[in-house]
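Illustration 12: Helix-turn-helix domain-containing protein.
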Amino acid sequence: MTEEALRRRASDRVEARATALRGAILVDACSRRSFSRHTHDVFGIGVVLGGAQESASGRGLVRAEAGHVISLNPGEVHDGAPLGDGPRHWRMIFLDPEALAQAFAGNGVSAGTELAFPVLPRPLARHTVLSLQQALLEPVPDTLAIDGLLVEAVAHLLDRDEPLRIGPADPVWPARQAIEDDPAADRDLAELARMCGLSRFHFLRAFRAATGLPPHAFRIQKRLQAARRMVLAGLPLSEAAAAAGFADQAHFTRHFVRAHGHTPGLLARLARGSGKRAL
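Figure caption equivalent — predicted structure in C-alpha cell form:
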C-alpha cells in the first residue's frame, strides 16, 4: 500500500451506534475511500453532510452532494467514490426489513417495496431524515416521533407523488382532542390514525397541515403546557414531569429549556416568590 493510500486510510472515521429502534444501526462516516461494488441485506437511509460522491446504484450511476438524501435497498449492488480532493461525510441508518415493515404499511404499500431514489435532493426529505436520526439517539426515545418520522422518510423515497386528501375541515380533530385531553397518554401513531379514519401516511400530512406540527411535537407542547401549569400551582418538578407524561425530570427540563429558554426550576422559584409574576 502506498504512503498516500495509508494516509487516506488513517484519515477515515467510521462510527456505529445502536439506536432506540430494534434492528436499526446509525453509522456516521467521513472517508476518502473508494468502495468496490457490494450489497447489504438491509435498507439504508441517510444524508450526505459534506463533500460529494459518485456511485453505482440500482437505478444507474448517481451523484450525491452535501444535503442530499441517499438510500439503498437490500441486495442492491452499489459502490462509492469521493468527488474532489477531500473526503465525503455521510450519516446513514441501516434498518432490517422488519424495522421498516410498519413504515411501509403506514404508506399503504407492501413491506417488499423498493426505495426508489438512491439520491434525493429534497430539503424537506433531508430535514425528515436528520430529525429521525436525532430521535433514534435521544436518551429518552419517543416512539410516536420515531414511528411518524419513519413513515415520512419512507414516503419521500417512494416512487409516487401522493396528493394530500384533506376531506373535512379538520379531519384530525379526534386525535388532536385526545392529545389535548390527556397529553400524558402514550398513544402510538396507528391508534391516532385510526381515531381519524386515515392511513398513517395521510394522518401525518393532515395533522401537520392542521396544526403546523407533527403529532409527537404537538404532544410534547401539550405536555409542556400541562407541566408548566402544575409547576406554577406549586407541584414539585419531578411530580409535574411525571404527571404530564415525561419520562423523568431531566427529560422535562431538556424540552422546557428548548421551548422557553430557561429551566423549569427558575419558573418554580418565581412561582414561590410571587404568584403574580409570570414568564
